[in-house]
Known about the structure:
Catalytic activity: orotate(out) + L-glutamate(in) = orotate(in) + L-glutamate(out); estrone 3-sulfate(out) = estrone 3-sulfate(in); prostaglandin E2(out) = prostaglandin E2(in); 2'-deoxyguanosine(in) = 2'-deoxyguanosine(out)
Pfam family, one: Sugar_tr
Order of helices and strands: HHHEHEEEHHHHHHHHHHHHHHHHHH
Transmembrane segments: 139-159, 166-186, 192-212, 224-246, 252-271, 343-361, 373-393, 405-424
Number of helices: 22
Organism: Chionis minor
GO cellular component, one term: basolateral plasma membrane
Helix content: 55-70%
Distance between the termini: 20 Å
Amino acid sequence: MRFEDLLLEIGGFGRFQILILFILCLPRINLPMHFLLHNFLAATPSHHCAIPHQEAFVNLTTEEVLLISIPREPDGTFRSCEMFSQPQFHLLLNSSLQPENDSIIQHCQHGWVYDHSQFTSTISTQWDLVCEQRGLNQATATFFFIGVTMGAVVFGYLSDRFGRKAMLLLSLVCSVVFGMLSAASVSYSMLAIMRTLTGVALSGVSLIVLPLGMEWVDIQHRTFSGILTSIFWSVGNMLLAMVAYLVREWHWLLVAVTGPCLLSIVCLWWVPESARWLIANGKVKQAHRHLLRCARMNGRKNFAVSPEVRNGRSRHVFFLSHKKSGESYSYISLFRTPVLRKISLCSGAVWFGVAFSYYGMSMNLTGFGLNMYLSQFVFGIIEIPAKMIMYVVVNRVGRRQSQAWALILTGLCIGANVIIPKPFTSLRSVIAIMGKGFSEAAFTTVFLYTSELYPTVLRQNGMGYTSFVARLGGALAPLVFLLDEVWRSLPEVTYCGVAVCCGSVAFLLPETLNVRLPEGIEDIE
Length: 525
């Protein structure tokens, strides 16, 4: 007897499963509030070199002091990172005569003055992470995703070894601790370390929530469950825009996005361990206790468990269990057999492309002509219809085609904005929003698709490995923006090329539409 047959007896999608899914959606809301927090935490407002006071400036206005102290860009704006070595008083007579001698221009010597009209403070203004230190500002997001990458390996293994629920609770508790310590950071080094550890902790939440919910749901409702859980990521996206709009000080912003983890910890009390995992690991008594609870909540009162089954002596229990006594699985198991090896290599490439392009678009809020808060909110809203459409598409067209084309179209939209001239702001915004929709469709599909590709005994290891590769993409995505110093459009061209190539790899994966979740490696091979 397979686990799906048991689900039919106890109710594969009833009140029990709905309760679990909604509780698991709470931490899902919190994820984008941290994963995309860099947009606001490290935002760089307009700035210019600080000008030391001089007696000659007494009768000059602020605008005139800037005019004689700071060179201008061709568009007339003041440069952010340079100043004149000596005041150029002749510019008061004719400001259009910008000095052509670069020897009188130097880097900022006395710090910077920031525009605080939009942000009270960010980590950029706190520690002057601008100009020569701009790389450190972008690296803050990279440190976070390095933490998420490490967490994917750690929690992928631990949740297969010690259970989904225990590791989810541990990751939530650690998220609260390190999130609050991040808010209390007194130096850039402390913040970088705390954000890295926060990433490690939140990786467990990202990794465990979907499989834990999916393992309680029957085949017919698997897609719906995956899409429902994913929609709450978009809700978190929109909430981040609203929270960031209301909280303009970076310390309190970190507190505001970390606090909801406490609610998730409390609500986790009502979520049971995965019965599928318990049976696969020989913990039959615990599994049947949860199965009985599920049957009662779903109104299946006729479901009964014999004493032999409760004690683990029934023959059909061993049909359910695909984990042989003393046998353990690790990440190496993902590459030992040919079919599983191909799945692991291809899904890793797809995950890298999905994350790389998604975070590349999500962290470029000011590049499409919209207000950054509005961009964040619109990017969150557009994800919801994208998920709804994918719910229909993945069930009609299949997982493989949906995954491939969603990612390829993401790349094409990014590439289109390289070609469209900057003055066409409205058209660029529409293409960007479409690209964001395709990007989210690809992300939604890849979570669902991957959880169906791997067997129960290796599912969390598989999710851990693919999440590890995805977070490498997420870690590299912010650094690619620094390539604009080589060529202004090089970051977009890079995102486009990677998305199209990795989307094409998805065609090599097997289709999982209406296929039972594999329990053991032999089911895959």
